[in-house]
Amino acid sequence: MRTLVSIASALLLVSTIGASAQHMTPQQERMRSCNTEASSKHMAGNARKTFMSDCLTGKVSTTGSTTMTPQQEKMKSCNTQASAKHMAGDARKTFMNSCLKG
After folding, report:
1. Does 65 score more than 60 pLDDT?
2. DSSP string covering 14-61, please?
3. At what angle do helices 26-40 and 45-57 cross, to 10 degrees?
4. What does pTM read for this prediction?
């Protein structure tokens, strides 16, 4: 009887591990695609570390093009507007704050 329970437990454990290996989290999927991309480009050392860091944070897509997050795009737009108006100091800070909020 104990042997049967042990075998059943082992089978349950193996099936659970197998099922969880098939369902990767979004971060695991991103890690896999970034790693594949770095390997296909034959990257190593610091270049690979930099690429992986940028890829995992979304600065570089797995197709190799640079992408910006919506917040980064908004920051760039607000910064461009403030520069066009020749703002500096507290006026620029106030403008940037209101621009980024709305």
Report:
1. no
2. HHHHHHHHHS--HHHHHHHHHHHHHHHTT--HHHHHHHHHHHHHTSB-
3. 140
4. 0.40
